[in-house]
Amino acid sequence: MSDANGTVAVLGTGTMGQGIAQICATTGHTTRVFDVAPERAKKAIDAIGAQLDKLVAKGKLTVEARAQAMTRLSPAEAAGPACEGCDVVIEAVPEDMALKVTLFEEVVRAAPKGALLASNTSSLSLTELGRKIGAPERTVGLHFFNPPPVMELLEIVRGLATSDDAVLRAQALAKALGKTSIVVNDVPGFATSRLGVILGAEAMRMVEMGVASAADIDRGMELGYRHPMGPLKLTDLVGLDVRLAILEHLHRELGEQFRPPPLLRQMVRAGKLGKKTGEGFYFWKDGVAVAKG
């Protein structure tokens, strides 16, 4: 789907799903939004409207473009109706294979036979997902980065049975969404999550050992290595619970280098999950990170 008139269903309205829906709508795609709690889908569309208002205020989006994007967004009360007639279905629900399989089984029954089936998973196997839902040739990973409307990269993951056509369609979609794509094979952690989480885990171990504060470790990577955001602040943004789940998966699949640091487990147990709870390696006030003393 390379044209701007295609229809996309976005399933899941967390931070990633909401951001993906925003990108789709602003780049000309009719976008249906589904969440297991219908009121969350409606709230997500309202939140997208608020984000677009900010872009208008900054002069980055016209009032007309904002209005057009909002007309392309609609909530769906069930996954099946959301996917009827869609060109692409993008799943952005929590990192749980059983949950994703159950959702995609409903999608396969409702979506057109040629629809591209995409998961925003950052670490789970696309090969396994495609096999379990009975559509391996058109199952692909579309791994967006947080926040999706801002981050340029889109990591396309091909399973063992993903067709060349599906990959080409995913690349065309990435271009239509204004993203730069890379294509990686279906290995645990793909390319970006594998590198990103191990850097974050080592930064956590440095905090555990008292090497430096979280803020100074981050500043070192930002200024010394040109990272736009340090690994600990990025962990707060992604969610400590999300990072823990990825590390546990990679630890099982790849070995000891991915064993989650005890500090991460303790913080997750304490409910300190990062930006979404107001505290992680930083305090978060009005969406801004404040270094701990």
How would you describe what is shown here?
The chain is of the alpha/beta class and 293 residues long. The chain has two domains: 7-185, NAD(P)-binding Rossmann-like Domain (Rossmann fold, 3-Layer(aba) Sandwich); 192-281, N-(1-d-carboxylethyl)-l-norvaline Dehydrogenase, domain 2 (Orthogonal Bundle), CATH 1.10.1040.10. The chain is built from twelve helices and ten strands. Helix 1 (15-26) packs across helix 2, helix 8 (192-209) packs across helix 10 and helix 8 (192-209) crosses helix 11. The radius of gyration is 19 Å and the shape is globular. The relative contact order is 0.10. The model has no long low-confidence stretch (mean pLDDT 95).
Compact description:
The chain is α/β, with parallel strands linked by helices.
Strand and helix map with partners:
Blueprint: E1 7-11, H1 15-26, E2 30-34, H2 38-57, H3 63-71, E3 73-76, H4 79-83, E4 88-91, H5 97-110, E5 116-119, H6 126-133, E6 139-144, E7 153-158, H7 164-176, E8 180-185, H8 192-209, H9 214-224, H10 231-238, H11 240-254, H12 262-269, E9 282-285, E10 288-291
Parallel strand pairs: 1-2, 1-4, 2-3, 4-5, 5-6, 7-8
Antiparallel strand pairs: 6-7, 9-10
Helix pairs in contact: 1-2, 8-10, 8-11
Helix content: 40-55%
The side-by-side strand order for the widest beta sheet comes to 3-2-1-4-5-6-7-8
CATH evolutionary superfamily of the largest domain: NAD(P)-binding Rossmann-like Domain
CATH class designation of the largest domain: Alpha Beta
Biggest sheet descriptor: 8 strands, mixed
The total of helices stands at: 12
| Beta-strand percentage range | 15-25%
- Distance between the terminal alpha carbons, to the nearest Å? 50 Å
Query: Which class best fits the helix and strand makeup?
Result: alpha/beta
Tell me the total number of β-strands: 10
Order of helices and strands: EHEHHEHEHEHEEHEHHHHHEE
Q: What is the domain total for the residues? A: 2
